[in-house]
Design brief:
Elements (H helix, E strand, L loop, with lengths): L6 E2 L10 E7 L2 E6 L2 E8 L1 H13 L6
Antiparallel strand pairs: 1-2, 2-3, 3-4
Organism: Streptantibioticus rubrisoli
Protein name: DUF397 domain-containing protein
Pfam family, one: DUF397
């Protein structure tokens, strides 16, 4: 696998807690936090879109 080219999310703002995004192949998205770059979440566009919809709808709020 070739090295990933990470891009800082435009919603991260400034500071040390930033979300980084990379795409390795069409349909494969990688996410990591800048303070723990060794932990990488790999997903698909459809699953990421579903997660974001649930977050925005409050579907993942804790009681």
């Amino acid at each position: 696998m070739s090295p990933l080219h990470w891009q800082k999310s435009s919603f991260s703002g400034t500071g040390s807690n930033c979300l980084n995004v990379a795409i390795s192949t069409p349909g494969t998205i990688h996410l990591r936090e800048s303070d723990r770059p060794e932990v990488i979440l790999t997903t698909t566009p459809a699953r990421l879109a579903d997660l974001l919809r649930r977050i925005k709808a409050g579907g993942l709020d804790r009681p």
